[in-house]
Specification:
This protein is α/β, with parallel strands linked by helices. It has a single domain, classed as Rossmann fold (3-Layer(aba) Sandwich). Helices cover about 45% and strands about 15% of the residues. Strand 7, helix 6 and strand 8 form a beta-alpha-beta unit.
């Protein structure tokens, strides 16, 4: 029987139509949380929420752009309207645009910065404002990346935003701690998702260069996420936890 560790908690998870975000939302719901599941693809969000509901979870889909500040506020308002509060916010939505530094286009850079940085910043802002009003504390989790720690070819823009997310988690400790709100980040390494499940070469390459012998599964990232938004981590804040099977310790390129 699954322990209901998140009973009475209300979570918002962005970019959760599939992959890491979906598994985080699924695990939260399995453990009793009421969850707003967001994805920019509204149909994908609805399908994901329906699957979670079939498992007995309480999950509401909201299709929309997590980089749109007005939509971010709408998610917080919906959580309060539907479930009465917000206690967990997970800014998982992100976009990866590979490109040679010398040819990288302004619109690509702006897109990466809007989704990865601004989307995370304004979800943290909107959710923490609500938590501050509730006076019961809360947990915010951001999604960084190993590419924010180690250089990776053709990912200068992406890596820059992911390093910024780690710094955002550290900086907001000053703002949020007085209200008993924790703020942390996870930096996943190579992870098997819908995009890479059938890519035998991806799994083979990352298995060869990862000390633990395999790339991460979505559950590996989700378990770390649930720990960081649970009471078990109540004295951890401002940290970025790397979940990469040891890759950043050796860092050979794929």
């Amino acid at each position: 029987m699954v322990e209901k560790s998140f009973d009475t908690q209300v979570a918002i998870v962005t970019g959760a139509g599939q992959g890491i975000g979906y598994e985080i939302a699924r695990q939260l719901c399995r453990q009793g949380a009421n969850t707003i599941l967001n994805d920019i693809d509204g149909e994908l969000a609805s399908t994901a929420a329906e699957e979670i509901e079939k498992e007995g979870g309480h999950c509401v889909a909201m299709g929309g752009n997590a980089a749109d500040v007005s939509f971010v506020h709408a998610m917080v308002e919906q959580a309060v309207r539907q479930f009465g509060s917000v206690s967990i916010a997970i800014a998982n939505a992100g976009v990866t645009i590979f490109g040679d530094f010398f040819d990288y286009k302004p619109d690509a850079l702006q897109n990466v910065m809007n989704v990865n940085l601004a989307g995370s910043f304004f979800l943290a802002q909107a959710a923490s404002k609500q938590m501050k009003t509730q006076k019961k504390g809360g947990s915010i989790l951001l999604m960084s990346s190993v590419t924010g720690h180690q250089a990776h070819k053709d990912l200068a823009a992406y890596g820059m935003t992911k390093a910024g997310i780690a710094m955002l988690a550290k900086t907001l400790v000053i703002e949020l701690s007085p209200f008993n709100i924790s703020i942390n980040a996870i930096a996943p390494g190579a992870t098997i998702t819908e995009r890479t499940t059938g890519d035998v070469e991806f799994i083979k390459r990352w298995s060869q260069i990862t000390p633990m012998g395999r790339p991460a599964e979505v559950g590996d990232i989700a378990h770390a996420a649930l720990f960081l938004v649970s009471p078990s981590s109540r004295h951890i804040t401002g940290q970025t936890i790397v979940v990469d099977g040891g890759w950043t310790s050796v860092s050979p390129p794929p």
